[in-house]
C-alpha cells in the first residue's frame, strides 16, 4: 500500500465544484464533482449563489477526505484553484455575502468601462495591470455591488466588508474566517493590482472608488494560507497552494520555461504563454499577467481569453436540447466532411480577445434548408478552434511564433476537436496523459509548499504525452474555412474593428 501522502486540490470552476486527490506522480486517485446553478437575471448578466458554491465545494471536499481515509492515506496539503475575476463581497462578522457572485462572463458594467475609456484612463490601467478596461475583470463588479447594495459603501469604509475572488471566499470559509488572502495570479485579474510593483495600487483604487479596507492580503502561489477549521472536516489540514484556474493549468502542464504555451478548453478557452521575468506588453489586445509568483519573484505570461468554448456545447445540451451529452459531439462531427458553410459565433456574453467587444452577441450564420443538428454541432466545435486561431494570430502579430501547443480541459477528450485545432492552427497539438491540469497545478503548488516536491524538475518529470495531433488539412481548405469565420465575426461585431 502506498505510504506517500496525497494532495487535495479544490477546483472551483464556472459550472461545478470539484475536489481531486492526486498521487505525487500526478496520477488522479479520486474525483468528486457537483454542478451548481447558473443565474442570468438580465441579458448579459451572469451570477452565482456564493452559498451554493460553498456548499458544493464543502460537499466534494468532504467526499475526498472520506476517500483518503478509506485508502488509509494522509493528505499532505490542499491547493485551491478557481474561476478568476468572479467577485464576491461578504460581511466580515457573519460571513454572509451581500449579493450574488458576479461572474467573469458578466457584462453589466460595459457602460462604466466605456466611460472610463472615453475619459482616457485605459493607458494607465494597462501600464499598471497589463489588462484592458473591460467588464471581464473584477474592479467594476466590486464598484457595482458597493453602489447597488444599500449602505454597502459605509460598511466597507468601516471595515465591516471583505472582497474576494472565489479563491479568497473559499479560503475564508475553510479557515473559519481566520484568513483573508489571495495569491498574486488572482490579484492580477482585478484591475486593482500593479503587476510590476506587486501590490494593490492606490491610484487604481481611487479610479474605481474602492476602499483598500475590503481587500485581501496578496501572497505567493505557494504559501502558508492557514489550516482548515476542524469543525468542517473533523481534522485540520494545511492549505499551501493557490492560483487562478488558467495559471494553475499552465503550472500543471509544466510550462515553466519562457516560450512554453498551453490552452485550456473548459467553459471558456484560455491561451497562456510563459514570458519569464519579462512582462511583455501586447500591441494586439492580448493580456499581460502574472503566470505564478514563488519566493517573491513573479513569472509573467501573455494571455488570450475566449469567453465561450465548452459553454457553447452546454448551450447545445441544456439550452437547445440538440444533444444529451457533450461526448456525443465527437461522433456527430465525424459524420460530416465539411461544415456546409455554417458558422456559430458564440458571443453570448460579448467577444473576448483579441476583439474585446462587450456588446457583440452570438449568431448562427449560413443556414439553409439542408442545415440540421449535425451541422450546428460541428459549427459549435469549430468555433472553439477558430477563436483559438484568432488568439494565435494576435500572438504572431506581436512577434510570438509558438511551435507546438499543449492542451487540457474537459473538451480535449474530443479527438475530432483536437485534430481540427491542429489543422486550423497549423501546429502540432499535444494532449497529455493527465488532462486534469488545472486541479493538478494547484496540487503541485501545495506540494512545493509542504516539501513533497523539491523543484520544477520533479514536476516536469510527471508530464507525459498521450497523443500528438499533427496538421493534415489542405492549405486552401483551411484558408476558405477561416475566411468564412472572419466574415461571420464581422457580422456580429457591435462596431467596426479597430
TrEMBL record:
Record-annotated Carbohydrate kinase FGGY C-terminal domain positions: 263-448
Residues noted as binding sn-glycerol 3-phosphate in the record, renumbered to the chain: 14, 84-85, 136, 245
A Pfam family that the UniProt record links to this protein: FGGY_N
Annotated control of activity: Inhibited by fructose 1,6-bisphosphate (FBP).
Binding residues annotated for ADP, in chain numbering: 14, 18, 267, 310, 410, 414
Keyword Magnesium: no
EC number: 2.7.1.30
Residues that bind ATP: 14-16, 267, 310, 314, 410
Pathway(s): Polyol metabolism; glycerol degradation via glycerol kinase pathway; sn-glycerol 3-phosphate from glycerol: step 1/1
Carbohydrate kinase FGGY N-terminal domain: residues covered: 7-252
Catalytic activity: glycerol + ATP = sn-glycerol 3-phosphate + ADP + H(+)
Record-level GO BP terms: glycerol catabolic process; glycerol-3-phosphate metabolic process
Enzyme class, spelled out: transferase
Keyword terms of this UniProt record: ATP-binding, Glycerol metabolism, Kinase, Nucleotide-binding, Transferase
Similarity field: Belongs to the FGGY kinase family.
Stated role: Key enzyme in the regulation of glycerol uptake and metabolism. Catalyzes the phosphorylation of glycerol to yield sn-glycerol 3-phosphate.
Protein name: Glycerol kinase
Native source species: Sedimenticola selenatireducens
Lineage: Bacteria, Pseudomonadati, Pseudomonadota, Gammaproteobacteria, Chromatiales
